[in-house]
């Protein structure tokens, strides 16, 4: 009999950044390491990843990071995390290929990291705990559910999945494995909530196929399909349907090509060589349309497909310039945080008279668990405790209500928040809970994890209130300010006469400088900080605004 702790570092009350921890006695098992994309107003922040201080402090107890599938909300934080803790990573072959490509993108040498390939026949043993896997159906190949077997029963991690029956046989669920898990008794299931509201999302993709078929039949020119590169099973469908209509296939988008390359190498995507079309640079094409019977997948992550389409409209793309004969099809709605770029692409396309079609999310088969899928899962596993995970609060609470309608009671449903640790002692849920450090780390381009809250606030201030730059020339030897400071503003709106305002700031600044220079000693960095702070105060008093204030002291020798 032992102690099991279940907690989340991300993925609770949010869309993405999935990372969960199961501790069995002293052993730590980490489930997934995802990122999430920021909302629109985060000023240059590219991604958000979980704070992993807890794992760093306890790194000797971490047995491994177990990855369910290759979507970025499940693997995207790995480059950062592996730099902080040298943990083993376990994932299927296809997922490992994606992880390797992600590490390479971050200039990391994959050979230095401990990446292990698993499959649904493999069982890993860690003392008296073992970890095994079962195949699931999702929009990306080789997705698995993860089973942690303890002496108090199995703990099942069931993130993104559904039991869709019409999917490609390479994406099938191993129901036999799930049944075996049940035989040994299931202590807890952690299952996703994000698809819980997808009640009217058809269980098959026939509506999509019908719509796309119509588009193929009605257009004899080029068709550009904007689709996220992670939606691989649907990409294969588009390729198959296009090939059947004697079309050639081209793929645009750096990240998209990479994922598709990996999928082709792993045997998940099939495009016959003679049907695969590669664009020549636009200025080398003999006629601008090059070939007509082409289906072009415009693919990538987050804003990439939209930005590429804009470039193709305004003549800035190296390979493709769109014309009014072309047609663009958007598959799925914009993701959170991409709406602006989507609207921008739409505007540009319409201005170019390109025919635009949108196949909305509503008619696309969901690749997440609906309430029916969850019912089936719980009926097969019969867990003692259910932890609704993955999703915003509305999804988590809806999931809880749905479980209740299956006959479970509150005592068996555990809703935790990021950073809250639920404890199961000798097979029974304890009333006591623990807490661990959790939170967001911001990623800005290559500056992984080095971006603080203050920096984001500073960018917010810059965009809303502008900047005031004060340049002063100082003769350090004689300890005097050589001439009046120069005040320069960008994006700052004066609400009094600018000259009067600048005069007041200048006088104030001179007074502060004189005081500082009169002291026997001072540190320049500290002086700049206090100049900035004090000037901010006076600016606020004069204008009720809080711009970023940047004092620059230039030392001169006379
Ligand atoms: Zn997924």
Report the uncertain regions.
none
In order across it, which strands form the biggest sheet?
Answer: 7-6-5-3-2-1-19-20
The averaged pLDDT comes out at: 88
Look at the helices and sheets and give the structural class: alpha/beta
* Structure ligands: zinc ion
Biggest β-sheet: count, sense, barrel? 8 strands, mixed
Radius of gyration: 28 Å
Number of strands: 26
Topology of helices and strands:
Elements: E1 3-10, E2 19-24, E3 27-31, E4 47-50, H1 53-57, E5 62-66, H2 72-75, H3 78-84, E6 89-91, H4 93-105, E7 115-117, E8 123-126, E9 129-136, E10 143-150, E11 153-158, H5 175-183, E12 186-192, H6 206-218, E13 223-228, H7 232-244, E14 248-252, H8 254-265, E15 294-300, H9 304-313, E16 327-331, H10 339-351, E17 355-359, H11 371-381, E18 385-389, H12 393-405, E19 420-425, E20 428-435, E21 440-444, E22 447-451, H13 453-465, E23 467-475, E24 480-481, E25 486-490, H14 498-518, H15 524-543, E26 548-555
Parallel strand pairs: 3-5, 5-6, 6-7, 11-12, 12-18, 13-15, 13-16, 14-15, 16-17, 23-26
Antiparallel strand pairs: 1-2, 1-19, 2-3, 4-21, 8-9, 9-10, 10-11, 19-20, 21-22, 23-24, 23-25
This protein binds zinc ion.
């Amino acid at each position: 009999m032992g102690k099991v702790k279940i907690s989340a570092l991300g993925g609770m009350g949010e869309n993405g950044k999935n990372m969960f921890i199961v501790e069995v006695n002293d052993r730590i098992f980490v489930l997934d390491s995802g990122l999430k994309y920021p909302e629109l107003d985060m000023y240059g922040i590219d991604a958000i990843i979980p704070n992993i201080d807890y794992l760093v402090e306890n790194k000797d107890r971490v047995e491994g990071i177990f990855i369910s599938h290759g979507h970025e909300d499940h693997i995207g934080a790995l480059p950062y995390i592996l730099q902080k803790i040298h943990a083993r990573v376990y994932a299927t072959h296809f997922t490992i290929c994606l992880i390797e490509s992600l590490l390479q993108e971050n200039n990391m040498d994959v050979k230095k990291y401990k990446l292990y390939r698993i499959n649904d026949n493999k069982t890993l043993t860690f003392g008296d705990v073992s970890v095994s896997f079962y195949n699931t159906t999702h929009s990306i190949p080789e997705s698995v559910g993860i089973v942690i077997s303890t002496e108090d029963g199995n703990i099942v991690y069931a993130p993104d999945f559904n039991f869709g029956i019409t999917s490609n046989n390479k994406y099938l669920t191993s129901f036999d494995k799930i049944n075996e898990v049940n035989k040994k008794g299931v202590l807890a299931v952690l299952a996703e909530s994000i698809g819980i509201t997808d009640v009217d999302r058809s269980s098959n993709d026939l509506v999509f196929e019908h719509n796309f078929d119509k588009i193929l039949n009605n257009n004899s020119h080029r068709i550009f399909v904007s689709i996220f590169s992670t939606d691989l099973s649907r990409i294969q469908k588009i390729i198959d349907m296009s090939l059947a209509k004697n079309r050639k296939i081209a793929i645009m988008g750096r990240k998209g090509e990479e994922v598709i390359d990996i999928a082709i190498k792993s045997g998940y995507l099939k495009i016959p060589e003679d049907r695969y079309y590669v664009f020549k640079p636009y200025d080398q094409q003999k006629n601008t349309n090059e070939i007509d019977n082409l289906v072009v997948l415009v693919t990538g992550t987050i804003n990439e497909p939209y930005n590429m389409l804009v470039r193709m409209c305004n003549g800035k793309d190296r390979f493709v310039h769109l014309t009014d004969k072309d047609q663009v099809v958007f598959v799925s709605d914009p993701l959170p945080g991409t709406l602006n770029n989507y609207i921008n692409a739409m505007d540009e396309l319409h201005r170019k008279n390109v025919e635009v079609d949108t196949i909305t999310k509503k008619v696309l088969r969901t690749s997440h668990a609906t309430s029916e899928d969850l019912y089936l899962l719980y009926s097969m596993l019969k867990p003692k405790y259910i932890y609704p995970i993955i999703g915003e609060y509305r999804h988590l609470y809806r999931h809880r209500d749905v479980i209740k309608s299956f006959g479970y009671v509150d005592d068996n449903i555990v809703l935790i928040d990021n950073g809250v640790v639920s404890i199961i002692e000798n097979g029974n849920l304890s009333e006591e809970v623990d807490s661990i450090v959790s939170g967001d780390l911001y990623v800005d381009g290559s500056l992984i994890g080095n971006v603080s809250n203050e920096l984001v606030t500073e960018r917010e201030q810059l965009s809303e209130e502008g900047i005031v730059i004060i340049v002063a020339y100082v003769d350090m030897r004689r300890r005097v300010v050589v001439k009046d400071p120069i005040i320069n503003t960008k994006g700052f709106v004066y609400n009094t006469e600018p000259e009067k305002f600048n005069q007041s700031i200048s006088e104030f600044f001179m007074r502060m400088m004189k005081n500082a220079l009169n002291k026997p000693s001072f540190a320049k960095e500290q002086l700049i900080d206090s100049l900035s702070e004090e000037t901010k105060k006076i600016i606020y008093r004069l204008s009720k605004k809080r711009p970023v204030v940047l004092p620059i002291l230039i030392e001169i020798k006379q």
